[in-house]
Amino acid sequence: MRFVQYDDGRLGLLTDDGEGIVDLTDRLDLSSNDPLQEYIRGDYDASAYADADPDLAVADAHVGSPIRRPGKVIAAPLNYENHIAEAIADKDITTDEWFSIEDKGYFLKAPSSVVGPDDGVELPFSDRRCDHEVELAFVMGDDVKDVSTEEAWENVFGYTILLDISVRGDQDRSNRKSYDTFTVIGPCVVTADEIDDPQNLDLALQLNGETKQDDNTSDMVYSCGNIVQYASIGTTIEAGDVITTGTPEGVSALSDGDTIEATIEDVGSMTVDVTERDLVFDDVDVDKDGND
Description:
It is a single chain. The chain is of the alpha+beta class. The chain has six helices and 18 strands. The strands form three sheets. Strands 1, 2, 3, 4, 5, 6, 7, 10, 11, 13 and 16 form an eleven-stranded mixed sheet that branches. A five-stranded mixed sheet has the order 8-18-17-14-15, with no helix packed on it. The protein has a two-stranded antiparallel ribbon with strand order 9-12. The termini are far apart. 43% of the residues are buried.
C-alpha cells in the first residue's frame, strides 16, 4: 500500500497507476491532522480499500508530506562512498576530512522543516549556496531502543523519498538543514512489504531536466538497519519518526525558479518547485576579545 497525505490533513491510498487517491479519512474515521501517525499508532487496517475506486485524482489534490510532523527526523551524514569523495574535494560541502556515523553520529533535522512535494522549497538566502540531496528515507512503525541491526528491519513501517536541502557553510548541520521547507518528503510512504530489497533501489534526481544524481542504495556505507541500530543506542526511536539515509554524489546548487524531479525505484517520484526569499540578518556588534 502507498499512503499519501493530501488537502491539509486527509489520508489516502494511491491507486496502482499513481493517478488516483482512495480516501481513508472517512472510511477509517481518522480524526488527527497527522493521520498517518494516527494510523501507525492505532488499530487500523486499510488493506480492504487497496483496490477501491479512487475518490479524486492526484492532479486535483494538494499532496503534502505523508508524515506531517514526525517527532524526529534522524539523518545519516556522508553515507555513499562517491559522495564522500565529492564532499572532501569540495570545501563548500564540508571542511572535514572523511568521517563516518560512528565518528560523529547522526544529526537531527527540525520537524518544522518538513513539507510535501506540492509545498515546494523556499530558499532563504540569495547569497549562500543551497544544495539538493535526494535520499531514501523510511518511517518507523514501532518504538525501539537498543535494537540490533537485524531487529531494526522488522520495525520499519514504510519507505519514501526525501529531499534534504542544505545551506552550505560552517554552521552545525542541524542548523543548515532545518530551514522551513528543507525536508521535502513524499509523495507517499510505501509499506515495507511492497519493497523487496531497500538496499537495492535505483535513485535519481533531475534539476531542470538534467540528471544530477543517479545511483543505487546498494552503495550506502551504512544500511538502513545499521542506522536504526546506531541511532537507537540510548535513544528511543518512536513510531512515526523519519530516518533518512544519506545522498549519493551529484549535489549542486539550487536557484529561484528551479524544478526538481526526484525518483526512487518502487517508491515513486515527485516534482518540486524552488522559489527564493532573501532573508536579512541584522548586524550585531560582538566583542570577540571577551571584553565588557
